[in-house]
C-alpha cells in the first residue's frame, strides 16, 4: 500500500482528484482493521490526520461547527460541546475504549456509516449537516440524507467530508443519549437512542428521536414523537406511550441480540431517558 501525506487540504483535494478511488486514512480505527482482515485493499491511501484545517470545534452564528478530524475524546471533553450539544458529548464518551476515542474521529464515524455508529443518532436529532468538498467545489448535505445504507453514503469519488454543523441547543431544549451493549464498555451497540426535545413547564412542545442498530440506517421514531407531543414528563401514561416505540424499527437478529429483544429495548431506553429528563426538570 502506498501512503501519501498531503501537506494541506487543497493538496489533498488535488491529489484525490487524480486518484478518486484511493483510500482516505484519518484515525485508522476502521480502515486499518478492514485492511488487515483483507476486507479492503486500496493500492493507495491518503493520510489526512495531520491536516489541522480539518481539526476544529467552533461556534458560528448559533451553529456548532466541527472538523472531521476531531476525536471522540476531544468532543466528549469539549466545554463548548458540553454546553451546546451535551447529548453529542455523551454519545462520544461511549465510543469504544479510551484508546479508540483518542484516535477515532467524528468524520470517520460518519463515513464508515455503521448502523450501530454511536454519534449518528445524536447528530440526526441535532439536525446536523455535513460539508462535502472536492477540487471542483463543495456541497452541503443533511446528515439524514448522507448515509444511505450500511457502509454506504452519498460521498462521491474525489470528495472529502470537511465539516459537520448543527444549531446550538437552546436553553429550553433538553436531550439524552442511551446505549445498550453486551457489557458496560467497549461494546458495539445492541440499540442506541438519542432524543432532543423542547420543554415548557415539563410539557413536551417539540421532540426528535433517533435509534441506531435497529435498521440499515438510523431510524427516526416519528410516530412516537408525535404521541409524546403535548404530554408532561410527569404523566403516568408515559410508559404506555413509548412501550411500542420499537414497532417503528426494522432490526435484524444476529449474534448480539434478537430482533424481538431490540424492538423491546427501544421502548425501554426511551422510557429510561425520559425519566432522567423528568428528574432533571424537577430538580
Distance between the termini: 56 Å
Overall morphology: globular
Number of domains: 2
Q: Which series of helices and strands comes N to C? A: EHEHEEEHHHHHHEEHEEEEEEEHHH
Neighbour order of strands in the largest sheet: 4-5-10-6-7
Low-confidence runs (pLDDT<50, min 5 residues)?
Answer: none
Give the oligomeric state: single chain
Percent helix: 25-40%
The whole-angstrom Rg is 19 Å
Beta percentage is 25-35%
How many DSSP helices? 12
Task: Let me know the average pLDDT.
Answer: 91
- Biggest sheet details: 5 strands, antiparallel
Structural class of the helix and strand makeup?
A: alpha+beta
Can you walk through the features of this model?
The strands form four sheets. This protein has a five-stranded antiparallel β-sheet with strand order 4-5-10-6-7. The protein has a four-stranded antiparallel β-sheet with strand order 11-12-13-14. A three-stranded parallel β-sheet has the order 1-3-2, covered by helices on one side. It has two domains: 166 residues, 2-Layer Sandwich (Uridine Diphospho-n-acetylenolpyruvylglucosamine Reductase, domain 3); 108 residues, Enolase-like, domain 1 (2-Layer Sandwich), CATH 3.30.390.50. The radius of gyration is 19 Å and the shape is globular. It is built from twelve helices and 14 strands. A hairpin with a 2-residue loop joins β12 and β13. The longest helix is centred in the last third of the chain and has 24 residues. The chain has 283 residues and is α+β, with helices and mostly antiparallel strands. The chain starts with a strand and ends with a helix.
